[in-house]
Design a protein that fits this description.
Layout: H1 40-57
Pfam families: zf-CCHC (PF00098)
InterPro entries: Znf_CCHC (IPR001878), Znf_CCHC_sf (IPR036875)
GO molecular function: nucleic acid binding; zinc ion binding
Length: about 70
């Protein structure tokens, strides 16, 4: 499989074309600015970060439903 050109790559964090999520110039919380935040993938990403924050602060129950 050939690698994609950057013009064809869409960042799953911010939704912009031209870079991969691990190189997102908008930072770790870029997914919060996505206009498609109701998609299942965005919901899973948001849950991941919310749960990581909850673990960091010792909160047992948190996250989104869905």
């Amino acid at each position: 499989m050939l690698p994609k050109k950057l013009e064809d790559v869409t960042c799953y964090k911010c939704g912009t074309k031209g870079h991969y999520a691990n190189r997102c110039p908008k930072g770790h919380l870029a997914f919060l600015s996505q206009s498609k935040s109701n998609t299942p993938r965005a919901t899973r990403q948001l849950n991941y970060y919310i749960n990581a924050i909850c673990v960091l602060f010792g909160i047992e129950t948190c996250g989104l439903k869905g």
